[in-house]
Amino acid sequence: MWCWRLAPAGAHLLAFFYPRLKRVISVELDERLAESLTAKLGNPPNLAVVQADARTVDLSQLIGNHTTYKVVANLPYYAANFIVRRFLECECPPTTMVLMVQREVAESMTAAPGGMTLLAVATQFYARTRLVCAVPPTAFRPSPKVSSAVVRLDLLDSPAVEVSSPDSFFHLTSFLPGQERSLLVKAFAKLNLCLEIMGRRSDGYHEVRTVMQAIDLEDEIEIATSDSLSVKCNDPALNDKENLAWRAAADLARKAGRLPTVSITIKKHIPVGMGLGGGSSDAAAVILALNEFWELDLPLASLVDVAAGLGSDVPFFLWAGAALASGRGDAVEPLPTKPGIGLTLVCPGIRLEAKTARLYSRLTRFHFSDGGLTRWLVQNLMSGLYSDELFHNAFESVAFEEFNGLQEVFDAVEAATGRRPHLTGAGPALFLMSSSQEEHARVIDALQPHGAKAYFVRTLGRNRTPSPVAFSESKNTHVFLSCGEN
Hints:
The protein is an alpha/beta fold. The protein folds into three domains: 12-179 and 464-480, Rossmann fold (3-Layer(aba) Sandwich); 182-335, Ribosomal Protein S5, domain 2 (2-Layer Sandwich), CATH 3.30.230.10; 342-458, Alpha-Beta Plaits, CATH 3.30.70. It has 16 helices and 18 strands. A seven-stranded mixed β-sheet has the order 2-1-18-3-4-6-5. Strands 7, 8, 9, 10, 11, 12 and 14 form a seven-stranded mixed β-sheet that branches. A four-stranded antiparallel β-sheet has the order 15-16-13-17, with helices on one face. The radius of gyration is 24 Å and the shape is globular. The relative contact order is 0.17.
């Protein structure tokens, strides 16, 4: 029996399984996690840890000559349908799949006739489905704003209905009435832990080196079936075709050769115009969600192409976690990250039109650097060391001249903490590591005269959600997978 797990639970879940099973194969996307698992568990002979992406890993190579196996997975919203279909339709499918997914996905998989969506038809064509239990947000740290559920799929010996071609059957089913669906996804903010400007390029852009880190401040996005493309937002200023989410849907549809028929509703929690990447994150979340929602199954390289066409930092949000970005900021290399580090984020009540262009226009060659500060930060991050003293932003030398009132906010934070905050992106948001909730409270008090707002946030990893699922003992083989944010 095999189990595939998506999103890490550290070594705890594997420690439960491997003494009880003949063989366990854990496929982990996060390189550092993959390296640490076997070390933490003492390198048991019946445990194999493979560093790979569940969306692209070669199933036939992993399955090998094991004809009987089971899958256990905690599936992220944007990959659930695609990965489940991979297993259901492969040459050697599992006997059972036990999955934790977003609750509405679980309810869709297990829907009864009369309320079945395309996902229900596709799943129940191959398997008997059963909703096992609900998983509340409090089961996770940090707690998401959506509920999850565990669903069990027991594979049928043959498809539930006899058809000449499964592909033709599913294609026809997708056009039947009553296929209205929706999907709730999250888009996370980012911080620039380090941002260096290395000079001006021949194409007119600036060469940058930056380390970006995702944090748990998030927008909520609902994707729903529609006969046209629309974007609605609780910020009326973002209800137009210039919204990056609109462009993301239109560009992805163009890439896939289909019409952009979808309704997108955005509930903004990430402050706009602060250097937190909210619009870019929304666009990346839409790209990932629509790749599943429209069942495009486009490879990651194609999604990166679409993201890069929208803005230099959009590709980062396809991975989130921590990453080193270079070039214009669109060449992204994921980095190991340490989730759960507390930070105080300060958002001044300051808005500046065309802020990025105005800040760049103030830079001279004396503001340029060689990337050494970024390299030093990366070396420390690789060792798990985070420190305010390692952070840097080249725009800090010119931002206070452009943002009226930013100096007063900066001084208030420094006085309350005894440490210098740092600018993120082109600002005006500031951040610093938070030593305690008490220190964060002092910052809030210090900011009251300045009309600025403070948030207590935590760093996010690419895989941060535990999988609180227990199973009966069995001396069989299990496989676990890891694949991105849940």
